[in-house]
Amino acid sequence: MKVISNYINGQLIAPQSGQYIDVYDPSVGEVYAKLSDSDNRDVGQAVQAAKKAFPVWSGMTTEKRSAILLKIAQGIEANFEKLALAESIDNGKPLKLAQEVDIPRAASNFHFFATGLIHFASESHSMEEGAINYTLRTPIGVVGCISPWNLPLYLFTWKIAPALAAGNCVVAKPSEITPMTAFLLSEICIEAGLPAGVLNIVHGYGNKVGQAIAEHPQITAISFTGGTVTGAHIAKIAAPMFKKLSLELGGKNPAIIFADCNYEKMLDTVMRSSFANQGQICLCGSRIFVERPLYEKFKLDFVQRTAQLKVGDPLLENSNLGAIVSEPHMNKVLSYIDLAKQEGGTILTGGKRVKLEERCKNGWFLEPTVIEGLSYDCRTNQEEIFGPVVTIMPFDTEEEVLMYANSTQYGLASSVWTENLSRAHRIAAELKTGIIWTNCWLLRDLRTPFGGMKNSGVGREGGWEAMRFFTEAKNVCIKY
Ligand SMILES: NC(=O)C1=CN([C@@H]2O[C@H](COP(=O)(O)OP(=O)(O)OC[C@H]3O[C@@H](n4cnc5c(N)ncnc54)[C@H](O)[C@@H]3O)[C@@H](O)[C@H]2O)C=CC1
Ligand SMILES: O=C(O)/C=C/C=C(\O)C(=O)O
């Protein structure tokens, strides 16, 4: 059985506890690897290694740092098939999705920041009084990156690439539920010649390793993606130490469909925004609002298309949906389907666990589910489900749909479907979400600010936002 070691000070090493955690393949429901059960001792060791490496890494020329990060990107590309297969086995997502989205994006994250760092420059502001300010952006030192299980390598690299590009040394923790590709990345980093201690990957539970990262006084900035409750917990620990925080948290995203939309394009994309990655993306559109004249047609077509989706072995080419990441998570999603029924919802399609045969007979699979007949303010429509479950609701006016869309504690992303340009701008101005996609979904330009409002997070990642987060701004004012 594969044993997943920590990557500390350039070495693959066992956890100090000598203990290991079971890692499951969700499509077969069985343990297939053992993961280091690390604790604050391993985090302490990682921080010491990172501190030692900091003068070397931050003092390196940008060209040299860029070249090493590009080598990591090339290493991801060279190991493309191995990483995609590992991601699919670890997470349960269709192999095709890992090949088309997760792994290419992980390589892009490194490419993007490896080249970006060369162009990252100081700002200067001249004053009429005869003075000039220039703002130095210096690396922070040792930073922490904590990532979730839904897009494992994609989100892990989305954090560590800018942190490293900005000249920091990193103590990183991938999710204990999906640690495999982060482990494979540590092998790639060794191969790429990343100096020892620059990146340290400490595996284990959130309440041990994650907690130790949040508490460590020498980790002065943390980038976290995960659940809102965990984000609030980390914020509470970090606040008295005045740590810099970037929190990418949950969502309950609206998809708003007007009757004048490009119907076929909308339908194809809304299928994806509802069920991609089994609905386990914080950006998925889980509340679908449809203008009343289009509602019945949309309902008919959407339900029919959903019922035709194939839930199957993630390794097979024709599976549209794979397994849910874990048994507890599958049960959580099922409990929300029960709640929807109690709240008066009608299940139009789906709603049950899927029992596959042979290899996947004990896997954790769910039918893609469409629910109607719920009020906008019931729990099903207010709380994050994070699975292949969407609700559909009609609306009559722009004011009404904006009220529905903005009614939750979350404010991550919205998608809007209309051919009316003025309306698109009007709606975008009123939606309280950090990201608004009009006539598209998850169309990503890595230069743009990425993040949420309200309980969906604090701060923005991506492009210069990430480089600014991972640096200290120091203004120098010179009077001449
Ligand atoms: N990006 C997103 O929006 C995500 C949202 N979620 C939501 O959160 C819910 C719970 O999922 P979980 O896997 O439990 O997410 P989580 O928020 O517990 O896990 C995310 C990361 O935080 C770590 N973590 C957990 N406790 C920690 C602590 N005390 N200190 C520091 N780090 C800690 C985990 O080990 C993991 O690496 C999901 O059902 C879903 O609704 C989950 C994953 C991603
Ligand atoms: O950066 C992206 O393209 C996607 C990010 C997705 C998440 O943060 C998530 O699903 O947790």
UniProtKB/TrEMBL annotation:
One of its GO terms (molecular function) is aldehyde dehydrogenase [NAD(P)+] activity. Pfam families: Aldedh. Residues 15-476 form the Aldehyde dehydrogenase domain. The active site is at E248. Belongs to the aldehyde dehydrogenase family. Keywords: NAD, Oxidoreductase. This is Aminomuconate-semialdehyde/2-hydroxymuconate-6-semialdehyde dehydrogenase. InterPro entries: Ald_DH/histidinol_DH, Ald_DH_C, Ald_DH_CS_CYS, Ald_DH_CS_GLU, Ald_DH_N, Aldehyde_DH_dom.
